[in-house]
Amino acid sequence: MKQISVLVSAIIRQIFGSQLRQNMTSGVILMLISILTWTVSYPIYLHFLGYEKFGLWLILAVVLGFAQLGLLGTISAITKLVAEEHEQGNVLGVESYSYVVDDRDDYGEHCPGDNIII
Q1: How far is CA 5 from CA 11, 18, 21, 25, 34, in A?
Q2: E strand or H helix at 116, and its extent?
Q3: pTM here?
């Protein structure tokens, strides 16, 4: 029994030895879960929404998907960089990744969403 557990742990270390392998494996698992979810949910959505409303819902989903593609992972990249600087205790480094957006219109008036800290 001990030999089997040693063998299993060696296989797991081989498969998940690096961060790249972990990320690739988790990406594949998440994609499979997503495919399974869509396969199960399509008939349910069609039944309750009908073809017309379901089509509109898909169009909205596609538009939102393209909007998310426009971010290109910048939020997660900035979060990672700020976390690394914070871990090192570098306050100036953390501040270098943050800035204030000042939304003013043509007349110098503040617009809704002023001073958004990113």
Answers
A1: 10, 21, 21, 21, 31
A2: strand 116-117
A3: 0.44
Give the DSSP letter string of 45-101: HHHHHHHHHHHHHHHHHHHHHHHHHTTTTHHHHHHHHHHHHHHTT-HHHHHHT--EE
Instruction: Tell me which residue has tokens 């990672």.
Output: 80
Q: What is the pLDDT of residues 6-36, one digit of tens each?
A: 777 777 777 667 777 777 788 889 999 999 9
The pair of structure tokens assigned to 40 is 């199960």
- Please check whether residue 91 is in contact with residue 76, taking contact to mean a CB–CB distance below 8 angstroms: no
Separation CA 75–CA 26 (nearest Å)? 20
CA contacts within 13 A on the Cβ side of 70 = 6
Residues in contact with 94: Cβ distance below 8 Å, sequence separation at least 6, in sequence order:
82, 85, 86
